[in-house]
Amino acid sequence: MTYASISSWNPRSKINKSITVHSYKGGTGKSNLSANAALILAKRGYNVVLFDFDFRAPSLNALFQMNGTQYWINDWLAQRCELTEVLVDLSAQFHTKGRFQVGFTNPSGKAINEMTIHSLDEEWQARVLQLVLDGKDLLFERHNVNFQIFDTSPGFAMSSINAILAADELILVIKMDQLDIVGTQHLIRGVYNQTLGKKPELIVNKVPCSMLQTPDDYKRLKIDLSKKLGVGIIEIIPCFCEVMENMGQTLFVEKQPDHEFSKSIGQLASYFELGN
Ligand SMILES: Nc1ncnc2c1ncn2[C@@H]1O[C@H](COP(=O)(O)OP(=O)(O)O)[C@@H](O)[C@H]1O
Ligand SMILES: [Mg+2]
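Above: query sequence and magnesium ion SMILES. Below: predicted holo structure tokens.
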């Protein structure tokens, strides 16, 4: 299904937020958290657009079992099509109350190579930023979109920096791993605060259950990491074998809505709804 007239999708509210989900290291859970939170928001009645902005390792196609589409995000950025032609409407498939659309990135080796070549091209990147900013206005102002969520590449990728620059809210996802904690510290101080003048908030994901045995353990971890990294922590999510067993093959909140992981994602969606 491709993008059709949006006029029938009345917005549930006046919320207009673009959220970029980023991390220092890969495998922290960005794609799973972004996709599941986006789905919950659409189920709650919001119009949501989810973007795969990880051009090194596109993953939303696998998560949504999308084998092909007429246009990819790559085509929009190369100006071979309009943004609205890229978005795939998954509202009917997921029975959402709000409109749920996803922009997929081409996972083929050839497309990844092309994007890698463009990654250091300053002119290309400046144009990408302009396209993202124009797309943001278009979707919010003309298409009644409430939430735009960008799932990005980890680390210092220029495409991620563009998504960070365009976003209203920034979420960093971190694992309980010393390398990740130290790297995230540098990312926050050097890139977010100093270079981009932005303040992210943190989700701590995949925390070993042995570290979270009592409510006090959650509180202590929150205070400790918040102090160390100088940012607010919006969610601490344990590592669940059931999520690993799902193998990223389906959207977990759809499959197991009552699981603790799905409840955490529900809280994250509420945070996006209600703000801080
Ligand atoms: N809380 C969690 N508990 C267990 N496994 C998780 C959790 N969050 C994510 N995962 C798993 O971690 C792996 C990496 O997640 P992914 O969303 O692809 O990370 P990223 O996009 O940051 O690279 C996936 O196999 C996913 O199912
Ligand atoms: Mg990912």
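Residues 122-142 form the longest helix (21 residues).
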